[in-house]
């Protein structure tokens, strides 16, 4: 490969180039967990290391990406497109508290997130959306599950606010956080006693990670029987150790390097260069 291999800064990132969602074993486990919390109306706790796909699975389950495209249109005066099918099926609100979220922000944010989903369900069924954004929280009846991401950010009063909101509504709640959040919540008996399910989100297995990254990389070179391709994939798996976020960054960087150097096949050298550029270890 030529000397431009490490020149990985000359291409601009493309906007909205998110790859298609890939259903993994861990996502299927999360879906089963979320369905159970939703049907039994319990509080569920999902925890796992950073970057392994917790938020991605939760957003896909709730149809959050589709929702974020549809919901701004509901504030206009024109005709609305159909409510995304994923939102209608999941009936799930997705809420992420800010780092310094106040009690007032949480008190307003939780019902508002659920109200919006309920209104979307009403619109899908009756062709009507309630325009009053700050309605009382009891009008969230169509929402069956509330997912709270980054639950580690919630302080004691915030956790108590979540418990109070849960007690006042008939819906399941999932708290997503880092390992150790289950021990922290154990110090709050009133909330902890309402947790019916706990789910540990695990890193991707090597075979799954290989299959996921292979879909976003060039095909093997037939001239070397795919040996370089196999070695490069193995290097990516070793470097990322099942961490989906790292794998996504590394694959993106590898593709940029291959594009810069006008190479059409994956090689271990491209992976080595991408690792050095991303400083993720070797």
TrEMBL record:
Keywords: ATP-binding, Nucleotide-binding. One of its GO terms (molecular function) is ATP binding. Residues 38-185 form the ORC1/DEAH AAA+ ATPase domain. Pfam families: AAA_22. This is ATP-binding protein. It comes from Aeromicrobium phragmitis.
